[in-house]
Amino acid sequence: MADQSIVSALILGLIEGLTEFIPVSSTGHILLAGHFLGFKSPGNTFAVLIQLGAILAILSVYAAKLLRIAFALPSSPQARRFVFSILLAFLPAAVIGALAHDFIKSVLFETPMLICVVLIVGGVILYVIDRLPLKPRYTDAMTYPPSLAFKIGLCQCLAMIPGTSRSGATIAGALLMGTDKRSAAEFSFFLAMPTMVGAFALDLYKNRDALSSDDLFVIGVGFAAAFVAGLFVVRSLLDYVSRRGFTLFAIWRIVVGVLGLVGLLVWG
């Protein structure tokens, strides 16, 4: 196995962990970076499978809260409603992801120009939303109504277009439907758990025969890097967005999209 593949996997894993939970599109960043690094994986599995490292970062940070919710399920209507709301929000992505998996991986993942354009457009939309004088009605992710959760789940489906950002779509949708920034980001964290575990399981199953032991080692390197970087982001993001909003991420998306377009036009 070439050392270059390991170094590329480490870089891409760090990018995954740093970008998964902020509204900039981790998949878009990984696919673009992989394109310019000349990194390839069978069936584009790498970008999906290393997301599990970021999920473990959430689980480690929220372990105590998740345990409290689990133990409260038999006696707490609020805990049961919250779990139901997360599963309800996950449902649209589960259905569409399973039906459109092959098209997403073989067409959308292979179109870097589209990714750049979507990064720019999404950045503009996020910037505008962050500047709107919205008045939040929901400030606790644990008490979102199931109907609101389902609508946020529909927004999440937009993220199947690489460059959109799963967290960006869910957060922007939640803000427009009356949530505050902190609870929108936290709900996006919780929704990421079933969504990304489901994507991991589906992608691993679809490509089980195409992966070699070398591929698994490279994925493991990216997985570990994503876990470490994800810990840093999850621990700091909620406080940051509560104080400063999403403008920085909107600008970042636009800059990366423009640089990507320039790179594609110059180097191909």
UniProtKB/TrEMBL annotation:
Localization: Cell membrane
Single biological process term from Gene Ontology: cell wall organization
UniProtKB keywords: Antibiotic resistance, Cell membrane, Cell shape, Cell wall biogenesis/degradation, Hydrolase, Membrane, Peptidoglycan synthesis, Transmembrane, Transmembrane helix
InterPro entries: UppP
Entry membrane topology: Multi-pass membrane protein
Record-level Gene Ontology MF annotations: undecaprenyl-diphosphatase activity
Ranges annotated as spanning the membrane: 46-70, 82-101, 107-129, 187-205, 217-234, 246-267
Catalytic activity: di-trans,octa-cis-undecaprenyl diphosphate + H2O = di-trans,octa-cis-undecaprenyl phosphate + phosphate + H(+)
One GO term describing the cellular component: plasma membrane
EC identifiers of the protein: 3.6.1.27
UniProt keyword annotation of Plastid present: no
Additional notes on this entry: Bacitracin is thought to be involved in the inhibition of peptidoglycan synthesis by sequestering undecaprenyl diphosphate, thereby reducing the pool of lipid carrier available.
Family: Belongs to the UppP family.
Function summary: Catalyzes the dephosphorylation of undecaprenyl diphosphate (UPP). Confers resistance to bacitracin.
Protein name in UniProt: Undecaprenyl-diphosphatase
